[in-house]
Amino acid sequence: MKALRALLCILLVGPVLFAASCSAQMRDVPAPTVVERVDRSALLKAGDQRVLVLQGSHYQMGYAYGKLLAAEVRENIEDVLRLAAQADAQRQVPAPGALEMIYQRTKAFVPQEYTEELHGLADGAGLDRHKIELANVFPEMFHCSVFVLKDKATRDGKMIHGRALDYSVGVAPGLQDHAIVIVNKPDGENATMLGSYVGFIGCITGVSDKKLSAGMMGMGEYGKWDGQPMAYLFRQALEKCDTVEQAVKLITEATRTCQYSYLIADGKDRQAAAIHATTEYANTVGFGEAYRLWPESIEDTILVSADERYGHLVSRVRKHYGQIDVEKAIEILTRPVAMAGNLQDAVMLPEERVMYLANAVSPDQRNFQACYQPYYRHEMATYLAALEKLAGEHRIETPTSAPAQP
Predict the structure, then answer these.
(1) pLDDT tier, 143 (very low <50, low <70, confident <90, very high otherwise)
(2) Domains of the chain by range and CATH?
(3) What is the rounded average pLDDT of the residues 226-242?
(4) Helix, strand, or coil here: 96?
(5) Radius of gyration of the chain (CA)
(6) Is 52 within 8 Å of 69 (Cβ atoms)?
(7) What whole-number distance in Å separates Cα of residue 390 and Cα of residue 51?
(8) Cα–Cα distance for residue pair 279/273, rounded to 1 Å
(9) What is the pLDDT of residues 294-344, one digit of tens each?
(10) E strands along 7-122, which residues?
């Protein structure tokens, strides 16, 4: 099981140390231009950042996704499945066919709209639908660390939501090269902006147009996969919920997998909640509340970490309490709060629907981790405006739902 966790991108939490300066890492994203379009969706380029903007039914969004990035979808999905096959061959999994086992146990709990989107993605990319479904249970192995600060804890009182996604970049080489921002605007649901990877549709880092932000921390209990996969549940919370209260209700009432701590923040009223959830229970923790896993009570903060590393996080927040801004939050996320295989870091400002996003580079480079890379400022309003323009100029030709396969 230990080797499987390494192979399938286990995410760990580390202690907090501060870098000397992060100001040079914060970069604005230039105005995006359309690289290629399918129906009312498009692949945008904003400087060296790629942004996929999708709208329509879930099948239509998935189909456009697959068409716009067909070769890269096929490459990344095949890489994930190849790594899983290697783990099987080397007996590094608890049972043969680990991804297939997880898929079979979770498929009954996957919302139909996401199954439609996966089928659209496969059809657009020219890939077998089952391969897409298998690879998209991959995030069930993810972990990370998260925090939310507001009011007295931050320099200007605004809410700051930070998260570090740690994973063994060198074990699954190339995933960092497939990083992308995805903006989804499904018919009749909230729009979302996700920090993601080509070929995947779930949410591990995201902001909604209702000013909600989401990040999570995996906590184990692998093997308990009879429920809705975390990445789908988290995306559903952003797409269907307008408040923290609604998101808490959705997550706590869901049939869940494994053990996670979900952290949801709402920039409208500066409310937030951490949900420590197993398959059997879900406990909710608010600002300044002590919990058995996170016993320190600090006003206007929710700090989620593990073991002795939690103490380092607490001490740093106490030291800089009242002076934390985006730059300080970025410093909080540097190593060793981010681990050796740090894949992605994000600082979200839900009130502004803004995400500062950093992604790792090739592990052949020195200091390749995400925490050492530029943090690009992505404004959701810019991408929603691009979608509105596309909707005004083009029609959707793709069918609303997935055609049946023979």
Answers:
(1) low
(2) 2-393 (3.60.60.10)
(3) 97
(4) coil
(5) 20
(6) yes
(7) 14
(8) 18
(9) 999 999 999 998 877 788 888 888 889 999 999 999 988 888 777 777 889
(10) 26-28, 33-38, 41-46, 49-56
